[in-house]
Design a protein that fits this description.
Chain lengths: 277, 347
């Protein structure tokens, strides 16, 4: 395992897409320290910002520190594991196709944007556009799993095509906007216009007992029925197996189903868990 | 060889290779799961005249099923993968999808030669069907919390952990690292077909294995009552303690044992006259003196070892007072590749 320890106090963004298990594998600590990063408008070496110890021959990387300005960590990774102990900046795991990123802290915007596979688990909060499509892109996340234990911002899973996003805390507006398919599970308070323009896919809401989310739904979602979708048992089981603690709070198997968004294809669904108490 | 005074004939059962699949059927209650399982495995005693051989392997507790509901495990056997696919899709479609509250899952880990089940039945949804693709997290051999890779982990613990986490067993055994986006075994697609009580959930593809069918032994007894009591005891013992096998005949017991061919051209099999007590005087009988009835136990299994284990357990349980001899059916060793010698499995 290789350990990168943040040692800088810069406030200028550091773009470090070189930090992936496959890129660091087979390199000595000195070689890793010489890898190129972008510091604002200047190229620098990774060793300017991190002290490096160990080697990544086992495809395991640990990064330590408060690195809100460090972007693109794990972008495009295909295998291995990155463990972040602290906070990390934008574009974490962007377009990754495999492997695991485990963040014991906060993450910035665009976590797992357009990812194809693998697992990202953020134990704290994340920013906007989790699993979303980049501006101008036709599709967002196309596979994999993103778990955010805390809160997240706007446009969760925007234009996602496949995969699973679960947000344990509150989220902002337009969750699941323009979804093509896939699943978004929201265990906390939600913003407005959830599922706007979704074509297919599932958005599941698990509201607290004292919250009425149905009156805030877009009028272009039509009520179908109250039922017990068996597939949701599989999804929740998988989340529990991954250590996503908000799923442990779900005690019901009954959901109210709405079809929509009828301004788009209308084959999507909003599943609202029965409130307890 | 004798067990409890019962002669074990020095002969062998001749068994055949067949393609096998396992389905896990769940429902809101154990009654409905069992109902669906029995319906799906009806009219499936022998490929002599049925599209498949099938049976209920065992009932499953909620913590043993993928969705946490009561369930049943059923096995299907066919002569070819194509025939098995057609038979299983028809049976799941007509007998499980139609049954209240059910869902159906693949029960075999190996997905390199799958058959399409949910992927065929989805068309019943008439365009309203949807699917969910679940990606299974795979264990990491370098993770302290990973299961199945610590030296102290026993095979049984691996199986238990695999069942608990719904992970492919083979993956755990290999102790693999990655989320493995390129491995089919880490991805499972489930079809959701709208039906009148909600949705029928069925896994897209079911794995198959090369199984063993036609394992058997014969219980020769002095009275029909003694023969049936021994057969019932053998069936109960096998069902209680042996996994990966089914006994496809009614109650697990066969009374119309057959021989190959017939004097009638259209029949591929006919009554095994050598074991019919009513024909003792007019045919070349295989019945020793004092035998008045014979029952056969036929065993299909996912492996030769499972069939041998079932034979061992069944024969031992069948050695009751009134039973004269235990024998086995074969075709002179010329047809089936698997010869299960009674004396060998009972050592």
């Amino acid at each position: 395992m290789i350990t990168l320890t943040w040692k800088s106090n810069t406030t200028v963004p550091v773009e470090a897409e070189c930090i992936t298990p496959e890129n660091l594998a087979g390199k000595s600590a000195a070689e890793v320290g010489r890898l190129a990063v972008q510091h604002g408008n200047r190229p620098e070496s990774l060793g300017e910002f991190f002290s490096v110890a160990g080697d990544a021959s086992d495809s395991e990387i640990t990064i330590e520190g408060e690195m809100q300005r460090v972007k693109w960590v794990g972008a495009g990774m295909t295998r291995g594991r990155i463990t972040v102990r602290g906070s990390i900046g934008m574009h974490l795991g962007s377009e990754m196709t495999g492997g695991i990123i485990d963040v014991h802290g906060q993450a910035g915007d665009w976590v797992g944007a357009e990812m194809r596979g693998g697992l990202i688990h953020v134990r704290g909060n994340a920013g906007h556009q989790v699993g979303a499509a980049y501006r101008g892109s036709r599709r967002g996340m196309r596979g994999g799993t993103i778990l955010i234990d805390g809160a997240a911002g706007n446009e969760i899973g925007s234009t996602m095509r496949r995969g699973l996003v679960a947000i344990g805390g509150a989220c902002g507006d337009f969750a699941g906007v323009s979804m093509i398919a896939g699943s978004v599970l929201l265990f906390g308070k939600t913003g407005v216009r959830t599922g706007a323009g979704m074509k297919r896919g599932t958005i599941a809401l698990f509201p607290a007992a004292d919250r009425d989310v149905e009156t805030a739904l877009l009028p272009t979602f039509r009520f179908d029925c109250e039922y017990e979708p068996v597939f949701m048992r599989l999804v929740l089981r998988q989340l529990r197996g991954l250590g996503f603690s908000p799923a442990d709070r779900v005690a019901t198997t009954t959901f109210r189903r709405y079809s929509g968004d009828l301004v788009a294809l209308g084959k999507g669904e909003l599943l609202i868990a029965a409130r307890l108490g | 060889m004798q067990i409890d005074g019962v002669e074990i004939e020095d002969t062998f059962a001749e068994a055949f290779a067949m393609v096998a699949a396992r389905a896990i059927i769940t429902a809101d209650s154990a009654d409905w799961a069992t109902t669906a399982a029995r319906e799906a495995t009806g009219y499936a005693t022998s490929v002599i005249a049925c599209d498949a051989e099938a049976g209920v392997e065992r009932e499953l507790a909620p913590d043993e099923t993928p969705d946490g509901r009561p369930g049943a495990s059923v096995l299907f056997f066919g002569f070819s993968r194509d025939k098995l696919e057609k038979a299983v899709a028809n049976r799941i479609g007509q007998c499980v999808m139609t049954c209240a509250t059910t869902a159906c899952y693949n029960g075999v880990d190996q997905l390199d030669k799958p058959i399409k089940i949910g992927g065929s039945l989805r068309y019943f949804g008439d365009g309203f069907q949807t699917s969910k693709l679940l990606e299974q997290p795979l264990a990491d051999s370098r993770q302290p919390s990973a299961v199945g890779n610590q030296p102290s982990t026993t095979p049984k613990e691996v199986v238990v952990q695999a069942a608990r986490l719904r992970l492919p067993l083979t993956t755990l055994q290999a102790g693999r690292l990655h989320y493995a986006n390129d491995q089919q075994s880490s991805r499972r697609r489930f079809w959701r077909v709208p039906v009148m009580d909600g949705e029928f959930l069925c896994e897209d593809k079911f794995g198959t294995v090369k199984g063993v069918a036609g394992g058997n032994f014969l219980i020769l007894a002095s009275t029909p009552r003694a023969a049936l009591a021994a057969a019932e005891r053998a069936v109960a013992a096998i069902r209680q303690s042996v996994r990966d096998v089914i006994l496809p005949f009614p109650g697990g017991v066969v009374r119309s044992g057959s021989k190959v061919g017939s004097r009638y051209k259209k029949l591929r099999a006919s009554t095994n006259d050598g074991y019919c007590p009513t024909l003792r005087g007019v045919t070349a009988t295989s019945l020793p003196e004092g035998v008045a009835a014979v029952y056969e136990i036929v065993i299909d299994g996912l492996s030769l070892a499972a069939v041998e284990a079932a034979t061992r357990v069944g024969v031992r349980a069948a050695c009751l007072p009134g039973v004269v001899r235990i024998s086995a059916g074969n075709y002179g060793g010329n047809l089936g590749p698997h010869h299960i010698r009674l004396h060998d499995v009972l050592k």
